[in-house]
Amino acid sequence: MIQRSPRVCWGTIGDDLLLWSVDDRRLHVLNSTAANVWLLADEPTTVDAMVAELAYSYGIDAEQIADDVAGLVERFLDAGLCVDPDVVGLRPPPVPVDEVSWPIDRSAMHLGPFRAMGVPLFLEVDDELLRNELSRILDPLRDDTIDLSGDRSGHLIGLRMVCEDGIWQLTSNGRSVSRTSSRPRALRAALSECNAAPLRMLRSAVVFHAAAADLGDGLVLFPGVSNAGKSTLVTQLVRRGHEYLTDEAVAVGVDSLHAIPFHKAICIEEGSQHLLPELSPAAGLTATWDVDPRTVGPGRLSPGGMIRAIVFPTFRAGGSTEVRPLEPFEVMQKLISNAFDFDRVGQPAFDAMIRLANALPAYEFAHAGGDGPLQTLENLFGRRRGAGAGDAAAA
């Protein structure tokens, strides 16, 4: 017997069938012939049954294709794209969800509540200096409409930073995250967990390592690895009057394809600080500048919503500004490489990326900083109106 692996997500771009293996984290591309074979294994079947169905569909003799089909099936099994349901359980193991118990322990100094990628979050910090710095940095995420009272359990992130004998220990919903003897490292650990913990909660969104700003009539996503220049790029755009969504992680709803606000402090690393000298904080525990986005330019924050384009930036010192349109398959490859682990969401997350790749204009954007690249982006997105992913979602 053979059946598609439950550990594989799939979708189509053009004439190709794309398969994403959760286990080896590889993108496989099947041509139409191989795709027709793989798609037949949606329920437990046999090679003989697949051969018979294909022969009937194409009006050919079964013997003509039997060896080819058997060879493809063998390759699917070797690659983990198909499994024997009698040997491998087809139901994926349940993914544990961190939950925090109510009522909240208020024995330590309490910060928040905040909302990170739509997930409620609070902190308890017993070190006053650390608490004050975290409060300053996290203030843009504060949401006083969140109710932290009551005796219940729910999807909520509770962080606790306790210092004992000169050691700061961070726990997230009771799970140990880090231990350090350095207050600055404790600060960065807490901020990092504020970004990472929501990913363990999200079940209806795919999250990209990306910055985002509204340049006109919709959001432009800037996915990229560290040092791609996305945070600096978005900060400069915000300084020019555009609305800020985030500089770190963009959560996109798998049904709506709308981006969820994540108005975290903008992180300006040392290598980019000379480009934005006016944002230098009066004081800080670390060399990184954590800047309240409401103090940059007009300080406008985007409410999230429709995505109209995707730009993959690359900082290239001394180079010229280059914009290259991307084909949907290239976009899909880049989206996957910049997506956080989406195993918990599975096929709906992959479907969302396929829809984004097929529907949205996307570009590679090489730049060397300065006003020229910003003007190029504004010419592309800031002075015209166009269709976005919301239109594709409704189609």
Keywords:
Rossmann fold; alpha+beta; five-stranded mixed barrel; disordered C terminus; 395 residues
Describe it.
This protein is α+β, with helices and mostly antiparallel strands and 395 residues long. It folds into three domains: 3-83, Alpha-Beta Complex (Outer Surface Protein A, domain 3); 100-200, no CATH class; 205-394, Rossmann fold, CATH 3.40.50. It contains ten helices and 22 strands. The strands form six sheets. It has a five-stranded mixed β-sheet, covered by helices on one side. The chain has a five-stranded mixed beta barrel with strand order 13-14-20-17-16. A three-stranded antiparallel β-sheet has the order 2-3-4. A hairpin with a 4-residue loop joins strand 3 (16-21) and strand 4. Helix 2 (47-58) crosses helix 3, helix 4 (128-138) runs parallel beside helix 5 and helix 7 (328-337) crosses helix 8 (347-359). The longest helix has 18 residues, at 62-79. It is globular, with a radius of gyration of 24 Å. Residues 383-395 have low confidence and may be disordered.
Outline, from the CA principal axes?
Answer: globular
Major sheet details = 5 strands, mixed
CATH architecture of the largest domain: 3-Layer(aba) Sandwich
Low-pLDDT stretches: 383-395
Beta-strand content estimate: 25-35%
Please give the number of β-strands.
Answer: 22
Rg from C-alpha positions? 24 Å
Overall pLDDT metric: 87
Number of helical stretches of at least 4 residues: 10
How far apart, in Å, are the first and last alpha carbons?
38 Å
The level-1 CATH class of the largest domain:
Alpha Beta
The count of domains is 3
Structural category is alpha+beta
CATH topology name of the largest domain, in short, is Rossmann fold
Q: Fraction of residues in helices?
A: 25-40%
